[in-house]
Specification:
The structure holds 2 protein chains of 2 kinds. By secondary structure, chain A is an all-beta fold. Chain A is 0% helix and 55% strand. In chain B, a hairpin with a 4-residue loop joins β5 and β6. The radius of gyration of chain B is 14 Å and the shape is globular. Chain B starts with 8 loop residues before the first strand and ends with a strand. The chains are: A mainly beta, B mainly beta.
Chain lengths: 110, 115
């Protein structure tokens, strides 16, 4: 079975901290994605990557950056965390047809 | 970018069929139609996908309109475990698709199943 693993299920950080969310997939997928999910707003795409070292902005990239140094790993970086970045973050990877999601990281910024 | 439109919520009685609609009038010719669902405290999980023809699997059926501008996810006998948010997603991973490599989520339909 394809597995998308997010490094933490729950994370608490303070405003101004630099925060790293890690995601690893084990199926050699080219495409990887970071979403955030908020009540009433659904899933919103932050960034995606279709190859190593390649990245494209999604709908809400402000305040975030990403890194894809290896095919299996896609990191989301909050350069200076703010309280409005408290959210559920979901990582996904995809083959040509199917998308696989991790179970999410619930991030709280205090 | 092609977008999808779904009702915000639907209700069903246990053991009865459920038809979840999705409109995608701007779908491009190479976009696949995917359905995912999300149970509480979990990431979305795959349900079914199709391109032009109707599809069946052990979880559900997918009925695609002839013009591909709409589709319907059919749960044949709803159970309490089917209560979730259902997302209709377009994705095109083929050369020439405007949505190559990108997922576009609808708002999702929250399905409530009553015992």
């Amino acid at each position: 079975d394809v597995k998308v693993t997010q490094s933490s299920r729950y994370l608490v950080k303070r405003t101004g901290e630099k925060v790293f969310l890690e995601c690893v997939q084990d199926m050699d997928h080219e495409n990887m994605f970071w979403y955030r999910q908020d009540p009433g707003l659904g899933l919103r795409l932050i960034y995606f990557s279709y190859d190593v070292k390649m990245k494209e902005k999604g709908d809400i990239p402000e305040g975030y950056s990403v890194s894809r140094e290896k095919k299996e790993r896609f990191s989301l970086i909050l350069e200076s965390a703010s309280t409005n970045q408290t959210s559920m973050y979901l990582c996904a990877s995809s083959s040509r047809l199917l998308v696989h999601f991790g179970d999410g990281t619930r991030l709280s910024i205090l | 970018d092609a977008k999808t439109t779904q009702p915000n919520s639907m209700e069903s009685n246990e053991e009865e069929p459920v038809h979840l609609p999705c409109n995608h009038s701007t779908i491009s010719g190479t976009d696949y139609i995917h359905w995912y669902r999300q149970l509480p405290s979990q990431g979305p999980e795959y349900v079914i996908h199709g391109l032009t023809s109707n599809v069946n699997n052990r979880m559900a059926s997918l009925a695609i309109a002839e013009d591909r501008k709409s589709s319907t996810l059919i749960l044949h006998r709803a159970t309490l475990r089917d209560a979730a948010v259902y997302y209709c997603i377009l994705s095109g991973f083929l050369v020439g698709s405007s949505n190559t490599g990108k997922l576009i989520f609808g708002q999702g339909t929250t399905l409530q199943v009553k015992p």
